[in-house]
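Chapter summary example.
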Amino acid sequence: MLEEVKLQRQLLLKTERKVRALMSSVKYAAKAKLLRSVVGVGPVTSTLFLLEVGDIKRFKNFDCLNNLIGFYPGSNSSGEKDIDTGISSRKHKQLRSMLIEAAWIAIKKDPAMLEAYEQLTKRMKGNEAIIRIARKLLRRMRAVLISGVEYQKGVVK
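The structure predicted for these 157 residues follows.
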């Protein structure tokens, strides 16, 4: 069993090296740098985002990207009943959870995000507000990738 654990660690290390090499390649290096300029987005989040989403321009608008991640409202409707279920259960599980974690970091380090979070918590629970902040973070990530301009901390958009 110990030999198998050692082998698994070696395979993991080899895979991590390949991912790092891929992210430092010409194709991804500039985009990864742009994403990491957004407060709360680190190397792991930017890597996962770029590798899973691919070319951001393939989404014609923000709503299409938002649907992939799963930050849109879900509902169950039958006949005359229409039940709001909160955010959709259809999602990209890893990306959505990474963006929520990044949103928690963003509200600690970015005054504009903190202000938005505080405004939202006046009318809803903190966990619901952080979903809205994560959505705002996703919008900013998309904007820096499309414009090619690094994010400016504290700018309210």
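To summarize the output: The chain has a mean pLDDT of 86.
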